[in-house]
């Protein structure tokens, strides 16, 4: 079966609590040792409807750009596609391996060595232990961190951490690649190599979804686009059509 994603009437909403209620819950739990599940939650002061009535079908070969103003719902849609958020309504069907370059350092264990991080991520992404081990040398060379890979990642600078996470996330070619803007990591020299690696990966995957404000990138890599507006799909079409729609609405 070829990779696909199908979203039907997907809705996402976030409950928003005020800072005072959250502070109170945390204090009660700290003093009583009560697990969060047993603490009575305060009512949210409001809910933010981040996505409304999203119907979307992506097939092998689709390369889609997500366009929209800040807060329009682009990152939320990527997180639904990657399985991080479960819709409150509607449903998702999908087939194919997914890699999301959205939260690349998520779940990083500070005590693990760089080498352990590479191997663990490789296994999580579906490689055998032997295949995951084989990634270590290439990633060490690409990041110029070979000498540091035996040390815990808590000893790395922020730039080193990002470089490592980026290199790991871009080593394996998934069927479906989800990206939020273009991931930036490292100094200018690394950026240049990172862009090339990213562009190679983008051209290899079967389905690409990229949220970006960079029109050049959208025109270079995407055939079609969606304009999101307050959580709804306001326009679907070629990248040029969608950019024209987006600018006319500004
Ligand atoms: N964890 C959260 N809790 C509450 N509201 C949230 C949360 N995450 C996102 N939102 C809200 O959902 C809406 C969509 O946000 P999202 O991050 O998807 O927008 P975006 O289009 O990616 O914006 P940007 O271009 O600024 O990255 C916004 O109103 C945002 O404030």
Automatic annotation (TrEMBL):
Signal peptide: none annotated. Keywords: ATP-binding, Cell membrane, Membrane, Nucleotide-binding, Transport. GO terms for molecular function: ABC-type transporter activity; ATP binding; ATP hydrolysis activity. It comes from the Bacteria. Pfam families: ABC_tran. One of its GO terms (cellular component) is membrane. Residues 29-248 form the ABC transporter domain. Belongs to the ABC transporter superfamily. PANTHER family: TEICHOIC ACIDS EXPORT ATP-BINDING PROTEIN TAGH (PTHR46743:SF2). This is ABC transporter ATP-binding protein. It comes from Diaphorobacter ruginosibacter.
